Amino acid sequence: MTLRSVDLRKEPVEEVLNRVERSLEVRLDQEPVVRKRRSLGARTDRGTWVRIERRGLDRIGVQGGDGTASAEALLGIAKPAWLAGVAWRDETEPVMWRADETELLPGPPVGSAVVTEDPQLSEEWWAAMNASLDALASQHTNRFATPDTETLTQELVTGTIHSVFPGGDTAVVEWRPAHADFNWANVTGPVFCVFDWEDWGMAPCGLDAANLWGASLAVPALADRVRSERRADLESRDGKLMTLFVAAKILGPYADPDDPRLGAARETAERVVKELQTG
């Protein structure tokens, strides 16, 4: 059966929401529901949050789609506690639905995935971000990250980079746990917290820093701050590869010609390519 392309911002979801309410024995505040392309979110009547995701069975792999629940074992990271979850297979399509109930976030997301204005974050925010990313990288897991629901492999890294920057050695040296979707829509302010752990797992060192850098390129001072804060990650060989990995996604065949990040992404990527060739 072919998986139908679905955008949950446009689909009727009342039946899904009602099923989650019955399964978790909770009432959802359905006005408003936060709608994204493949997920839904809503507050509950017991002061918690429920996130619901639709994911094709071919995108689940050996991890089972339980990223938020499994992340509860991670220590030293500012994230909402996981409380309960439920999953079921769709009756008509090769799709798994999963709902996870967590604590409420300490504040709103800093912005959309890509920001165009400096969010003016405090020194405490940056310190908490660094502490969380350092704690995450020091831990262990059998999971592999699934950015954009694709399992992150050496082949994916090489193929993505070479699609824009052909040639060159792209062999990853060090793999560490990563959030894998670390952008401004998945972190809060003014108090730092990182959420949406569906795709976390092992990834090349520097992926999270590179993702946040790429999401900041429309604000040069912010992108520079990210690179400064995560210099150890981004100046490592693997961090440079992840810079190219993220830049290739920005500059690749589906690039938006009006994306304000294009120039900065290409400029940095060209410098990094030269550094890798000479280093």
Low-pLDDT segments, ≥5 res: none
What distance lies between the first and last C-alpha atoms, to the nearest angstrom?
Answer: 48 Å
If you average the pLDDT, what whole number results? 94
Which structural class is indicated by helix and strand composition? alpha+beta
Dominant shape: globular
Can you write the helix and strand succession as a string?
A: HEEEHEEHHEEHHHHH
Question: Assembly type of the shown chains?
Answer: single chain
What is the number of E strands? Answer: 7
Helical coverage, percent range = 25-40%
* Number of helical segments with 4 or more residues: 9
Describe the secondary-structure layout.
Layout: H1 14-24, E1 34-35, E2 39-43, E3 48-56, H2 67-70, E4 82-89, E5 95-103, H3 123-137, H4 154-162, E6 175-178, E7 201-204, H5 207-214, H6 220-229, H7 231-234, H8 237-251, H9 262-278
Antiparallel strand pairs: 1-2, 2-3, 3-5, 4-5, 6-7
